[in-house]
Design goal:
Helices cover 46% and strands 22% of the residues. The protein is built from 11 helices and 14 strands. The strands form 4 sheets. The protein has a 5-stranded antiparallel sheet, sandwiched between helices. A 5-stranded mixed sheet has the order 7-9-12-14-13, with helices on one face. A two-stranded antiparallel ribbon has the order 6-8. The termini are far apart.
């Protein structure tokens, strides 16, 4: 009886996966083509799901990278993918933008050359200055790498860009400081010898002046010598001040009171077509040399006035204390500081001039109207006080000199303690 049942089972196989489409039962065997197709569909669906999950994880990871990442079509440069940092800096490039071309977002030939090199199968590495969607120009270091198919054909390009604007700025400031130190040492030695020669010339001229009558024709020639000697002595003093880096005369002083003193002096010396405005926070005290900071404010004020001639304009002097974390210009402040801003509405400066304004003996003034040492001295004084100097300027839009000076630790803590006592 059991054997008969076995025979019946072999002639009528038991369904592996009974199903009931539309309310009816259907038998399915391993040899059924529909079953094989179902397995293929399930396998394909599973692979697609795994691929989608992998792509999602990869996209999430790339969005966490603090660099610009983009994948381009090698044929026409269309953006196939871009991470969040790319969108934040250069604007959104989602599906709604109908795959914009990479080079349509930028100016210049550097990236065009980079893409051509990558299309040819060779990776590119270099730097490029690019304008963001906010209109700000940043410096990037990056690579453009080709992605090949199994047949070796370049199918797409991977672009990676890292913002190195702050690094370039720091490097420029370091080179400028090294240059100023070297020139300062050289200028100091020359100025001492120059000053000795001037003293000898002036002493001789004064002795001759004492020995002749006032009506003597030589008297006028001696006056010319004395005037030229006095001017040379002033120039020698400027050079010595540029080379001097001593803090022997430092002490705590009220910077706001000093600024008010300079403003009163400027009001009596500036042309009438220059309007002087000030906004000074009272009671700001720093550690430094008052005479040197007096020279800084005076020099920048006179320069701003001259930049507004002949039309005139507005010269603004602001002084305030800024807490850590605030942004001044393009940079966040890591610690509290004193911010002194001197701004004019004059002719402004182009990028080429901005690169050289702190170089000794560089001037845009006519011959005989400037020595080119004023801003060099200002830069040296600010650096010697542990501060930094940032300039913002555009042709026709004036200039703003932003001086950041450190808050002396004891003074800053004293201010905080007094505030807590009052509270």
């Amino acid at each position: 009886m059991v054997a008969n049942r076995s025979c019946l089972a072999s002639r009528h196989p038991i369904p592996l996966h009974p199903s009931r489409p539309f309310g009816q039962w259907k038998d399915t065997s391993l040899n059924d083509s529909t079953y094989r197709e179902t397995l293929a569909v399930v396998k394909e669906t599973s692979e697609k799901r795994q691929l989608q999950e992998t792509s999602k994880r990869l996209a999430t990871a790339l969005d966490q990278v603090m660099e610009v990442i983009a994948i381009l079509n090698a044929r026409d440069g269309a953006i196939l993918y871009s991470n969040t940092v790319f969108s934040q800096i250069f604007g959104a490039t989602g599906p709604g933008d109908s795959s914009p071309k990479f080079l349509e977002l930028f100016e210049g030939q550097v990236l065009a050359t980079a893409l051509e090199q990558a299309r040819a199968g060779q990776a590119w590495t270099g730097r490029s200055s690019l304008k963001t969607q906010a209109g700000k120009r940043l410096t990037f270091e990056g690579t453009v790498s080709p992605v090949r198919t199994l047949e070796g054909v370049v199918e797409s390009l991977v672009v990676r860009l890292r913002d190195i604007t702050l690094e370039v700025e720091k490097d420029r400031h370091l080179r400028q400081a090294q240059k100023m130190d070297a020139l300062g040492a050289l200028a100091g030695g020359m100025a001492h010898g120059f000053n000795n020669l001037i003293s000898a010339i002036l002493n001789a001229a004064e002795l001759i002046e004492m020995q002749i009558e006032p009506e003597n024709p030589i008297q006028k020639k001696l006056e010319v010598i004395l005037r030229a000697g006095d001017r040379a002595r002033e120039l020698s003093a400027e050079i010595l001040n540029f080379s001097r880096r001593s803090d022997d005369t430092w002490g705590p002083f009220d910077l706001a009171s000093l600024a008010e003193e300079v403003i009163r002096l400027l009001q009596t010396t500036l042309p009438r077509n220059v309007e002087l405005r000030s906004d000074l926070t009272k009671g700001i005290r720093i550690l430094g040399d008052p005479s040197q900071l007096h020279q800084v404010i005076m020099n920048l004020g006179i320069n701003g006035s001259q930049a507004m001639q002949p039309k005139g304009g507005v010269l603004s002097i602001q002084l305030k204390q800024v807490e850590a974390g605030r942004r001044v210009g393009d940079q966040p402040l890591p610690e509290p500081c004193v911010l002194l801003t001197i701004e004019d509405t004059g002719c402004g400066m182009d990028p080429q001039t901005l690169e050289r304004i702190f170089e000794p003996f560089f001037t845009t003034k006519e011959v005989g109207h400037g020595t080119g040492l004023g801003l060099s001295v200002v830069y040296g004084i600010v650096q010697s006080h542990g501060g930094s100097l940032q300039v913002a300027s555009e042709p026709g839009k004036g200039s703003a000199f932003m001086i950041r000076l450190p808050v002396h630790e004891d003074l800053h803590q004293g201010t905080k303690s007094r505030a807590s006592d009052l509270a």
